[in-house]
Design a protein that fits this description.
The chain is α/β, with parallel strands linked by helices and 212 residues long. It is built from five helices and eleven strands. The chain binds NADP nicotinamide-adenine-dinucleotide phosphate (NAP).
Amino acid sequence: MPLVRVHNFSISLDGFGAGAPQSLESPFGHAGERLHEWMFATRFWDPEAGHQGVDDAFAVRHGDGFGAEIMGANKFGPPGWQDDPDWRGWWGEDPPFHTPTYVLTHRPRPPLEMQGGTTFHFLDASPEEALGVAQEAAGDLDVRLGGGASSIRSFVSAGLVDHLHLVVVPIVLGRGTRIWDGLDGVESAYDIESVASPSGVVHLTLTRRSRT
Ligand SMILES: NC(=O)c1ccc[n+]([C@@H]2O[C@H](COP(=O)([O-])OP(=O)(O)OC[C@H]3O[C@@H](n4cnc5c(N)ncnc54)[C@H](OP(=O)(O)O)[C@@H]3O)[C@@H](O)[C@H]2O)c1
């Protein structure tokens, strides 16, 4: 049975997946690059100079077994990208998704076919409807839920996420978009494990308990 998975989603100690305000110059707001420094040091990110420790072992799972991705509008571009007909995402002409990629937005536009197998499709749909479309495209493979925090939260809240890999980074952001708001008691639906890395981050996995 194909799964819905989140990987490498980095949050601060106080649960923020991005700082504020988000902009073209600062996609993660006042968080800057601090949420992802652990990942930049891995071989997954930097095949030349990256290391192959605990962080890398988790990071590489981002690439395994996915047939589609769903992301929120604020991951696809800075505030106002919907007003720019030339905006094609942050990732250049060969984005790192290599599958159909569904961007949730209240202002959809025609699909964008990129190089390397990524096509961005723009959907104004409920989480359930969007997941149905993505699963159809993914076939036997899993669907990656790429973030940010608001869209992950809405899918978890709807009971649609099987596995989350969250990376707790030892910084306090105080403001931004938070993953946990409205998810009180979410731990009762998941088996939760943690692995502390020498780098200072803690890898959390939340695996949905069987619904039998
Ligand atoms: N920490 C990490 O590892 C990580 C990973 C990925 C991204 N990020 C960062 O997270 C930030 C974005 O996160 P975010 O929480 O602000 O926003 P987000 O989840 O990326 O996007 C939320 C927006 O998506 C649209 N949307 C969501 N659900 C929808 C639905 N069912 N139907 C139609 N539209 C829907 C709405 O935009 P509209 O109403 O404007 O259409 C909504 O405001 C960015 O800074 C990004 O760089 C962090």
